[in-house]
What does this fold into?
Amino acid sequence: VTLVVRGCDVLAAPGRELRADVDLVVEGARIAAIEPSGAAPHAGATVIDGRRLLAIPGLVNAHTHSPENPLRGVGEGLTLEPWLRVMLDVSGPYDAEDHYVCALAGAVEMLRSGATAVVDHLLMTPPRTEAVDAVMRAYRDVGMRAAVAPMVDDLDFTGDLARACGLPDEGAYSRQRRHLPAAELAAQLDDVMCRWQGAEGRLDVLAGPSGVQWCGDELLLALADVAARHGAGLHLHLLETFVQAVACRTLFGQGAVRRLDVLGVLGRCSLAHAVWLEDDDVAILAERGAVVVHNPAANLRLASGRAPVRALLDGGVTVALGTDGAASSDNQVMWDQLKLAALVHADPWRPGIRALEALTMATAGGAAVLGMGEELSTLEPGRLADVTLLDRSGDGLAGAADLEVALALSETGRGVRHVLVGGELVVRDGRCTRVDEDAARARLREQAERRRTRRPGAATRSAAAQLERLRQAVWSRNVEDAAGARRRG
Ligand SMILES: [Zn+2]
It folds into this structure.
């Protein structure tokens, strides 16, 4: 036995009965026992005083972009299409060290607030293996469980969509990107999967096509092929905005989910957002076992709309929870997402999402995205010891009349005391044990200062305005479709 949390309370998973005053016994990376406190001496083990502490499965942030960590507040007030253009323009270049710093500081923020695992959909301009390696090293150094999905694309839809709306094609978005051939992107993915898949027992790589409307068939199929050879999944954006839904119809003549299904790549897919699903999409996603990642803060900030989470859950789709990048959700704290997910979906005419469901999304849902199922999201002997220990006497939980509801709605992350990943104490007394977290934040701030000097210039402002005009044109031409989709959601 390597570690014992003595005398804590354990919530094995949302909805399970609370076990009070027990010893959580960890052997190596896994939970060895949960037994009445003091039942065994466990001589030689590291002992953590668990009195007043509540052990829950570590939260999984199932969708973010670490390079956005020094871009908080960027493009506030803009909708997704202009926001993306402004964000890409003002962020400027990243070398491998910049990527390392972004991932490290984000991991510190997540771990200290009780998230033990992350899916980092890694935006790079241009995609390259050194950047992926740097991000992998950051998660390895800080001790966080991570799946990194190198984000790639090779298609731009704005020109076609603008023409379809009768607007001049001003190439507002495409000038920004440098597209690499599909074969080269697939070779890069194969290379990083060969070197990092399963590393340290905590690191993984997913294929990361940027989004359905940003990738041609050849690229999607090449990435899916590499992923299948490595037994890995795909992680991509899906139907975040109504503009994207219309773009898919215009570009492919079919809905985004249908296209993925026809290409045969929906099997081990996790899909961020899924705000603008069509009628049959929920059934298709459920049938194929695809997982949806809900990102309520980013959807609200970018005025993207509200994902049909109630319909997804009722239709049998597994839903996970993510912060999305810090340039659109402005922090990497999962408690904010829990609260939003549990609050924003209720309407006077139908039920919303319950606190317990939000907690399940943030734990079991995230584990499904990582392809790890109950192994990660349940505190039981034999399962991985990814555990968040919260102060039951802290501001969030001291007044809890209903513990699980208070976890989702009252806790802010300030009550996180210790965090275990793979049985290792990576946060102790609120501080990261493996890295100098003050230095990590100082380096992130340096980077934020450097990038802050890059204000949006005239060309960026004009492109953003074109994209906003395009968005408005799409809306005004498809008012009835949009209204129908909103009614269904
Ligand atoms: Zn995203």
